[in-house]
Amino acid sequence: MENKVTFGSKFGTLVVVAGSCVGLGNIWRFPYLAGNNGGSAFIIIYILCSLTIAIPIMMSEFVVGRSTRKNAFGAFKELSRQKKWCLVGLFGILTSFLIYGFYSVVAGWAISFIQTAFTEGFTGRSPELIHSNFIDYINTGWKPTIAALIFIGLTASIVIGGMEKGIERINKVLMPMLALIILGLFLYSTSLAGFKAGMDFLLKPDFSKIDLNTFLTAIGQSFFSMSLGMGCMVTYGAYIKKETSLPSLALTIGLTDLTIAVLVGFAIFPGVFTFGIEPTSGPTLVFETLPLVFSMMPAGNLFGIFFFLLVFIAAITSSVSMLEPICLFIIQELKTTRVKAVLMISTIVSILAVLCAYSQVEGSPIRLFGSNLFDFLNNITDKFMLPFGALLIIVFVGWFANKELVRNEITNNGLLFNKGFKFYYVIIRYLIPIILSLFVLSLLGIVKW
What we know:
Blueprint: H1 10-21, H2 24-36, H3 40-68, H4 72-79, H5 86-119, H6 127-140, H7 142-160, H8 162-189, H9 195-203, H10 212-226, H11 232-237, H12 246-274, H13 289-296, H14 300-334, H15 338-359, E1 367-368, E2 371-372, H16 373-400, H17 403-411, H18 418-443
Antiparallel strand pairs: 1-2
Helix pairs in contact: 1-8, 1-12, 1-14, 2-10, 2-12, 3-4, 3-10, 3-12, 3-16, 3-17, 3-18, 4-5, 5-7, 5-14, 5-15, 5-16, 7-8, 7-14, 7-15, 8-12, 8-14, 9-12, 13-14, 14-15, 16-18
């Protein structure tokens, strides 16, 4: 079953694909990594990694999807002479499913914190109280579960509408809203006493912190943030119109992703420094450290409402891109309707989300290889499945896909990007596979630096 649906407009294409990239990783992961890996020195390395590795991989995933108009599994099955390559698409779909399972739990936290900001607020809360309240919330099990199920239901209601009437329509509203919230928070942060310190934390280059691991961190962040190696971009490629320039689209998405990540850092860290909070708190920054900042700043409750609304919007635009690859796979391979596909997947992923939420309860027996299920899925997808999936995709496009087909998709049948194609083809055949192979081996502990 060929996909005949395309994005309705260039703007729709941009906001949907950008929505996939802009998620929780932009809000806490990128600013934290940048601040602790050399500031602007890390940002420069991240840009280089994006231009030479992440964006060419994104282009390659687009090629696979647009040339076939099929889901990730069906696309590789059609393009490959050796049918085992279709397992690469299946691997990406599985990665999306596993990430969606634990990601919905985190997104549910955002829903809960929006409710807290509206009802109780953060004013006057001590660090100990904020920490204990968050731990108590996690340990109930049922509260994170309910919030995750609500989030899954909201995501399903969007994807049921299809690409143009559901996913594209909602992203046209949510992405501009997200940009306005970020801009508003940034403008507010300029009035805080710690604004300069926050800028220095992110932008002041510290080349003494730069080593090989910094490059590996930058590569890993680009995969995590740009939804690479998980079937999302292959699936969205199936909706991209033939006249759209894939290199231009990928470059625009990459720059948008970076800009939003930096602006979020600009909005967060001035408050962190103004009130003397530890800026290197990493994953706890959003749900423990920032509520403490809100408790001390003027109009902190209002700031908290908008901030956690930002977290929620970023989460749901990303979760839609996780559900759609699985949905298109079910529709095309099992020959069923979109409604049935979404309901089927949402039911199964709800079970996984419940297990993830309850695995975080203190003393929970829901564990794998020494970690609770939530942490296990987070680690295995981030540290293995995403980079390994991206490696397989780039090897396929560079060495096994028809070169003329790749050329026609990248250059729009010779109308655009002709001179750049040779450079692109060389790096996807040689440079990126070597780098990603070393990256995967280092993550597995086989190669040590």
